[in-house]
Write a structure and sequence with these properties.
- This protein is an alpha+beta fold.
- The chain is built from 11 helices and 19 strands.
- Strand 10 and strand 11 form a beta hairpin.
- The structure holds flavin-adenine dinucleotide.
- Flavin-adenine dinucleotide (FAD) binds next to helix 1, strand 2, strand 3, strand 12 and helix 8.
Length: 407
């Protein structure tokens, strides 16, 4: 039987980051990951890139991971939000969030999923307090007065003060604990595709809230961009098996003059989109973090960032409990975790789902209202600034380390 302070189910980005944050407090951590870790690393490439907000960067920096990850990121200097549809005059007045005061600090940072994950695996392996058990799942969990006892698929057993569920959507630990997950199928599929293009993107992101679904273009180099193109399932189905030339033509038709001529780089991947929230983020000696607790539409670019907020909250509660010599799996600690995290995640899910619905559909009258909404926000600098700070998870402006970032 292995004895550990924390057992983490799921060695994705949130599971590994939680492991590192807790190990830094002097705790022992066992990560149980379904996928075998090939060659000591986790390199399965989903092709996705993530926007990391300032609060996430700050946490990665405190965990000592930013020094590895920073040089692999791209700065995001501007975001242009528009409800542009071809031949729609409204598009002439997009809403821009960005570096208008000439500050050097980027709005956020962009990184490929595989780079972030590999850096986390490397740091976890070097920490000396984290054991990663790849190619295993938990088959049973039983919470007692002091510990939670886990049976693994290999016949091994692990006893921990707290089990942390980080298996992403459809968490098995949540299901075994009887936690209900409220799910909503958005009826949409997102394609992720990298483009190489002639025009420079000036490290500016574009988000188009189109009737078919949002289209997001993120800069990953001056002449490279990662596109997340959301479509209703039926339209997406036809494009899944389309040739590259056919897919590129369809995408060009949606992107219009954006970025000039482009060609596709690498394969395209597709993700069916749902939003979800767990009825409870906690159970007996159990806490749910990341997508195991909440799933948002990727147009927010916040799923992972909210997972990092979960980690930060749990880390600080555990630090306080340990200083006082308390139990890190105590019901009072878990109740505080839920109180701090669930309302925040619930609000984000509510706002995102409603924004998607508001901008979906082709009604001309609604299009004018949508346009008015964007212009109104754009005309109010305090509201715009509030939105940026909120999206970045900040209460106060923050200085973040960015000297190693790619130009
Ligand atoms: C197209 C797209 C773009 C996105 N862009 C952004 C963005 O820009 N910014 C952002 O913040 N978020 C973004 N997101 C959301 C982000 O991808 C997720 O929030 C994030 O990946 C969740 O990480 P996680 O570690 O919680 O879960 P996952 O990434 O799902 O990891 C779960 C891990 O648990 C393992 N696992 C599963 N079941 C078991 C089991 N039974 N036992 C053991 N292990 C198990 C899996 O193998 C995996 O390693 C995007 C999402 C999509 C679909």
């Amino acid at each position: 039987m292995r004895n550990t302070d924390f057992a983490i189910a799921g060695g994705g980005i949130i599971g590994l980051s939680a492991a590192l944050a807790l190990a830094q407090l002097g705790c022992s951590v066992t990560v149980i990951e379904r996928t075998p870790f090939r060659d000591g690393g986790a390199t399965r490439d989903s092709g996705r890139v993530f926007v990391l907000t300032q609060s996430t960067v700050s946490l990665l920096d405190r965990m000592g991971v930013w020094r590895t990850v920073g040089p692999l990121t791209y700065p995001l200097r501007d975001i242009v939000l528009s409800n542009h549809v071809p031949a729609d005059r409204c598009a002439a007045h997009p809403l821009t969030f960005g570096d208008h005061k000439g500050q050097r600090t980027p709005l956020a940072f962009i990184i490929a999923e595989r780079h972030l994950k590999q850096a986390l695996v490397d740091h976890a392996r070097q920490s000396g307090r984290i054991e990663i058990l790849g190619g295993r799942t938990i088959t049973a969990q039983q919470a007692g007065q002091q510990r939670i006892l886990l049976d693994l698929s290999t016949g091994e057993q692990v006893a921990a003060a707290l089990l942390i569920g980080c298996e992403g959507r459809g968490s098995a630990t949540a299901a075994r604990a009887g936690v209900k997950i409220h799910q909503r199928d958005s009826g949409q599929t997102a394609f992720v595709q990298t483009l190489r293009h002639d025009q420079e993107n000036a490290f500016r992101a574009h988000q188009y809230l189109l009737p078919m679904g949002p289209l997001t273009i993120l800069p990953v180099g001056p002449h490279r961009s990662s596109v997340t193109w959301t479509l209703p399932h039926a339209e997406a189905e036809a494009l899944k098996t389309a040739s590259d030339a056919c897919f590129a033509r369809a995408l060009k038709g949606t992107m219009g003059a954006n970025l000039g001529p482009f060609h596709l780089e690498g394969g395209r991947v597709s993700f069916p989109l749902t939003s979800a929230i767990a009825e409870r983020f906690i159970g007996a000696r159990l806490a749910l973090l990341g997508d195991a607790a909440h799933v948002f539409h990727p147009m927010t670019g916040q799923g992972l960032n909210y997972g990092f907020r979960d980690i930060e909250t749990l880390r600080s509660l555990v630090a306080t409990a340990r200083q006082a010599g308390g139990d890190v799996g105590a019901p009072a600690l878990l109740a505080r975790y839920q109180l701090r995290r669930r309302p925040d995640a619930r609000m984000m899910r509510l706002v995102t789902d409603n924004v998607i619905s508001f901008f979906a559909g082709d009604n001309v009258l609604l299009a004018s209202v949508r346009h008015l909404g964007l212009r109104t926000v754009g005309a109010m600098p305090p509201i715009r600034s509030f939105l940026i700070r909120r999206a970045n998870g900040l209460r106060e402006p923050l200085q973040i380390p960015h000297e190693n970032v790619r130009p």
